[in-house]
């Protein structure tokens, strides 16, 4: 089924082309990823376009991720030589650190401009990342104005747009971009349940089912509490994952007339629960411990 999904619609090809054209007009890149999936929400195809531009990685939606895991990721990225900063753009958290790190990253550019008499030259940054990771929200927060259109679905920003902040930064908003096939099925699940993929293009019931299984594995206590399921290893635990999915749906009242379980309604409800953090603060992947003799990003 997954191979038939078009994860990479045409407007994303256009966005990559725009990035390639515009990269020469910026001093640095701010890449937003989703703090709940700090690896699988990074588009591997951006590297060839952004090359060795100064880059800041923002772990956005940190309010939905487990705090200790976010700290682990920040340290892990630091070890890889990547500056990563957590933020909650919706609630304007992490902005000062982003501004400061941007100034530090571009210190030489600012100094050169200063030496040529351009005092207070703004930093120009292109904001890139996967759809729905909060690029436009972050830009509005940094500018303290609603300049960019935002929305609770992927694919809101369709073209590039400049936004000027308080004179210290000029930010270029970009459409969110995925890549063909998205890697492993686990990556596809992570990206779909966190909201980077348009729900219309996938079978959401199958992703909700896989998502519930993943959460039961990673956060059994929180997940079973939300859906009134018995914990693994306790009496009443349902071993069969499909039976468990149906029971969760039933426990949340998703029942059709005649007693049949409304899997579709439960899928929407589950995905909405996860997206809004109602099941708990959750991080779906952890940094790999480096194996001896290994460096760089996985
Ligand atoms: N909880 C939480 N929600 C956020 C955060 N940042 C953005 N959002 C929400 O995430 C959704 C997507 O935000 P956008 O700023 O439109 O995302 P985008 O990356 O510009 O998306 P595209 O333009 O589609 O690529 C919106 O509903 C925002 O309110 C955050 O830090 N925490
Ligand atoms: Mg946007």
In short:
The chain has 298 residues and is of the alpha/beta class. Helices cover 39% and strands 11% of the residues. Strands 3-2-1-4-6-5 form a six-stranded mixed sheet.
Number of strand segments: 6
Helix content: 25-40%
In whole angstroms, the N-to-C terminal distance is 27 Å
Domain tally? 2
What is the spatial order of strands in the main beta sheet?
3-2-1-4-6-5
Quaternary state of this entry equals: single chain
Structure in words:
Helix 10 (241-251) packs across helix 11. The two termini are 27 Å apart. With 298 residues, this protein is α/β, with parallel strands linked by helices. The chain has a six-stranded mixed sheet with strand order 3-2-1-4-6-5. The radius of gyration is 21 Å and the shape is elongated. The chain folds into two domains: 2-173, Rossmann fold; 203-275, Conserved Hypothetical Protein Ylqf, Chain: A, domain 2. Helix 3 (67-79) links the parallel strand 2 and strand 3. The longest helix is centred in the last third of the chain and has 15 residues, at 204-218. Mean pLDDT is 94; it is low at 294-298. It has eleven helices and six strands. The chain binds guanosine-5'-triphosphate (GTP) and magnesium ion. Magnesium ion (MG) binds at residues 135-136, 148, 156-157, 173.
State the main characteristics.
298 residues; alpha/beta; Rossmann fold; Conserved Hypothetical Protein Ylqf, Chain: A, domain 2; 2 domains; six-stranded mixed beta sheet; 6 strands; 39% helix; binds guanosine-5'-triphosphate; binds magnesium ion
């Amino acid at each position: 089924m997954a191979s038939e999904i078009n994860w990479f619609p045409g407007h994303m090809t256009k966005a990559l082309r725009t990035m390639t054209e515009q990269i020469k007009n910026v001093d640095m890149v701010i890449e937003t990823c989703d703090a709940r999936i700090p690896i699988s929400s990074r588009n591997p195809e951006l590297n060839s376009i952004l090359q060795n531009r100064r880059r800041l990685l923002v772990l956005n939606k940190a309010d939905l991720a487990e705090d200790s895991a976010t700290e682990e990721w920040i340290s892990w990225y630091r070890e890889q030589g990547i500056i990563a900063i957590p933020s909650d753009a919706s609630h304007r958290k992490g902005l000062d650190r982003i501004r400061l790190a941007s100034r530090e990253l571009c210190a030489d550019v600012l100094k050169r401009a200063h030496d040529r008499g351009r005092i207070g030259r703004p930093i120009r940054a292109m904001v890139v990342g996967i759809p729905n990771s909060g690029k436009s929200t972050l830009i509005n927060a940094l500018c303290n104005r609603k300049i960019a259109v935002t929305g609770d679905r992927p694919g809101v920003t369709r073209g590039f747009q400049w936004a000027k902040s308080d004179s210290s930064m000029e930010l270029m908003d970009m459409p969110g971009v995925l890549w063909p096939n998205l890697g492993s099925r686990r990556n596809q699940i992570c990206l779909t349940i966190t909201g980077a993929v348009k729900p219309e293009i996938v079978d959401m019931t199958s992703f909700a089912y896989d998502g519930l299984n993943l959460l039961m594995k990673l956060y059994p206590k929180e997940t079973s509490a939300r859906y009134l399921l018995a914990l693994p290893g306790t009496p009443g635990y349902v071993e069969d994952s499909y039976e468990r999915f149906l029971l969760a749906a039933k426990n949340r009242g998703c029942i059709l007339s005649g007693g049949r379980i409304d899997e579709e309604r439960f899928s929407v409800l589950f995905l909405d629960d996860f997206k809004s953090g109602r099941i708990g603060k959750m991080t779906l992947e952890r940094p790999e411990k480096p194996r001896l003799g290994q460096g760089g990003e996985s």
